[in-house]
Model the fold of this input.
Amino acid sequence: MAGSETRLRETAETPAPPDTVKILIAGGFGVGKTTMVSSVSEIKPLRTEEPLTVAGLGVDDLAGIEQKRATTVAMDFGRITISDELVLYLFGTPGQQRFWFMWNDLAVGALGAVVLIDVRRPESSFAAVDFFERRRIPFVVAVNGFDGRHPYPAEDIRESLALPEHVPVVLCDARRRDSSRDVLIALMDLLIAAAVDD
Done:
């Protein structure tokens, strides 16, 4: 009897493990997905970057990102603890079209996504917007201001991407932890609002 009481007391005192939420960080080639995961992750992120080689010439479009020297070939992974009750697992998708087949597997179990946009090359993220719309996975659009600049207001970007009003558009700098964190907060607000509406 005493043993049962001890076990019950230990169970009652043991904190419940936190809820975990899988989030995808997606977008076109070279928009800053690896940078965002790295800037906000509380652990050393898992990265699957490989150097760009001459074999990719004519396959990977480097227009506007000529300085890029490496690329994600599978995924990035990071983690951020929101509270004792909630932990986000971040999965960065590869950007090149030849690796898009992996997106379906990475999307399994994801509750939401961040679609990262480079306004210098907005067309590079059209496929990501379409991917999440078709699968009805809630997402926010994060506009990565390269060199810290945002030449267009959020509403102009919403209009150019033909985004519905319920999709948040957030201006950010993927290099900065606080800015990347604010993007994730916007996504969590969206997910919470959707859960309340259901």
Notes: The chain has six helices and eight strands. The chain has a mean pLDDT of 82.
